[in-house]
Specification:
By secondary structure, this protein is an alpha/beta fold. It has twelve helices and 23 strands. Among the domains are: 201 residues, FAD/NAD(P)-binding domain, CATH 3.50.50; 88 residues, D-Amino Acid Oxidase, subunit A, domain 2 (D-Amino Acid Oxidase, Chain A, domain 2, 2-Layer Sandwich), CATH 3.30.9. It is globular. It binds flavin-adenine dinucleotide (FAD).
Length: 419
């Protein structure tokens, strides 16, 4: 190691302080496992990454003791998910019918969730955060040997973190995944990208996450703290560059055509292309999620369309499922791929089911084929009025398999180190 490289040693090195990384860190710390988080950004004021949390993710945060504090930082409850068209309401899903304490979608800025998770991590022994450092390589004794840490660089110089397991929680363009040689082929099953921006909304909270299918494309709207409306306008996949060449006025006109009631506020707020955030929508699943000394969680393992707000939800649920697997592996002193495989075995079918469901939702809501046009009102009636409605809503909210946070493993003391 060179004189300018700082060396750290821990049980688990988590790469990425997003929802997946910080939830994993807190779960492990609560069970007496040492964690060092390496994060590229210097703070948590990340660019817009979506705010809508499904009840399943809220439940994980709640069991971690981080939901109330995150909510106190500012949020909005959305009791309904609604799809409208130029001829009126097509679908109106009442989340309140799901029952329980988390009977709503939660619009909560990601920085609020992350700040709360981080505050809890900082209270626990064995935690370290290496902020403002990007992971550049994985530490291995031989090219095919087990991963035993990471090397990261940042303004403060280089850092080497030695760990018994590395958790790649570094998002949809995961460096850890690439360094491990794991492929995650893109699947362009969604034919739209989304342009996001916020507008003032003086009429007060709508309490609704809405998708409007207008002639000018679909527009997503929902309330955001502290009193604005988040807008996502869908445009044909890969078309943004051409559109941007025609200037911001053109974009404003198109959004106004798609949802005329927004035209005035959009004209007042969207002044330049810098006011817009483009989400390049694609789906992807990594070929494998575990290797010797390595695990992938959240977007680095699987990337989703924003439809159905599954990204943060699934990331938090991944962390909950990984927790007992890592606890057992570290306790046994064996962190090879077979000791970690239980995580992928349990999680992959649930994630695949969520992916398939998103694709079906996308085709049903936005499909232009005759079958979709014929089936749309039939499905809408079944969802709104029939017994299928609460079941489908519950499935979107919590996933196909219930996720349990193993609070019985909290406070179990330090996990034994191998001899
Ligand atoms: C514009 C947009 C809107 C979205 N809307 C929603 C929504 O409404 N609801 C929803 O559920 N999901 C939404 N998503 C998806 C959601 O943001 C992700 O699914 C979720 O954040 C995944 O969490 P994660 O922790 O796996 O990854 P991320 O949140 O992406 O976190 C990864 C972290 O790793 C860090 N990192 C990356 N590379 C390195 C490196 N080499 N070294 C160190 N650190 C690194 C990053 O800085 C980042 O902090 C949206 C995404 C985008 C981009």
């Amino acid at each position: 190691m060179s004189g300018t490289t700082r060396g750290l040693r821990t049980d688990v090195c988590v790469v990425g302080a997003g929802p997946a990384g910080l939830a994993t860190a807190l779960l492990l710390l609560r069970s007496g496992i040492g964690v060092t988080v390496v994060e590229r950004a210097g703070d948590l004021h990340r660019e817009f990454r979506g705010d809508v949390l499904q009840p399943g993710g809220a439940l994980v945060l709640d069991r971690l003791g981080a939901l109330a504090g995150a909510r106190d930082r500012g949020c909005r409850e959305l009791g309904r998910f609604c799809v409208t068209g130029d001829r009126g309401v097509l679908l109106d899903v009442d989340y309140r019918r799901t029952g329980g304490p988390h009977d709503h979608l939660l619009s909560i800025p990601q920085p609020h969730v992350l700040a709360e998770l981080l505050a809890h991590c900082r209270e626990l022994p064995g935690f370290d955060l290496v902020g403002g450092h990007s992971v550049r390589s994985l530490l291995r004794d031989t090219p095919d040997g087990p991963v035993r840490g990471v090397r990261a660089t940042g303004a403060g110089g280089a850092v080497e973190v030695e760990a018994r397991v590395v958790v790649g929680a570094d998002g949809r363009f995961s460096k850890v995944r690439a360094l491990a040689g794991i492929d995650a082929p893109r699947q362009h099953v969604f034919d739209s990208d989304v342009l996001w921006f916020r507008v003032p909304w003086p009429d007060g909270p709508t309490g609704t996450a809405r998708i409007h299918r207008g002639a000018g494309g679909a527009v997503i709207t929902y309330d955001v703290h502290p009193g604005e409306l988040q807008v996502g306008w869908s445009l044909p996949h890969g078309s943004y560059r051409d559109l941007a060449r025609q200037g911001v006025e053109h974009v404003r006109d198109l959004v106004g055509q798609a949802l005329p009631e927004l035209a005035d506020v959009v004209a007042g707020r969207v002044r330049s292309l810098q006011d817009l955030t483009l989400l390049d929508v694609f789906g992807a699943r990594a070929d494998r999620w575990v290797d010797d000394g390595l695990v992938l969680v959240g977007d680095s393992a699987h990337t989703h369309s924003p439809l159905g707000a599954q990204g943060i939800n699934l990331a938090l649920q991944d962390a909950a499922v990984l927790h007992p697997v890592l606890h057992a592996a570290l306790g046994s002193g064996r962190c090879d791929r077979s000791a970690l495989a239980g995580y992928e075995r349990e999680r992959r079918p649930a994630v695949e089911a969520a992916f398939r469901f998103q694709v079906a939702q996308s085709r049903m809501l936005f499909g232009r084929r005759r079958l979709a046009r014929v089936l749309r009102p039939v499905v809408a009636r079944a969802v709104v009025g029939g017994p299928l409605g609460p079941r489908l809503t519950h499935r979107v909210a919590h996933g196909s398999r219930p996720v349990v946070v193993r609070a019985d493993l909290f406070g179990t003391g330090a996990v034994p180190q191998p001899a």
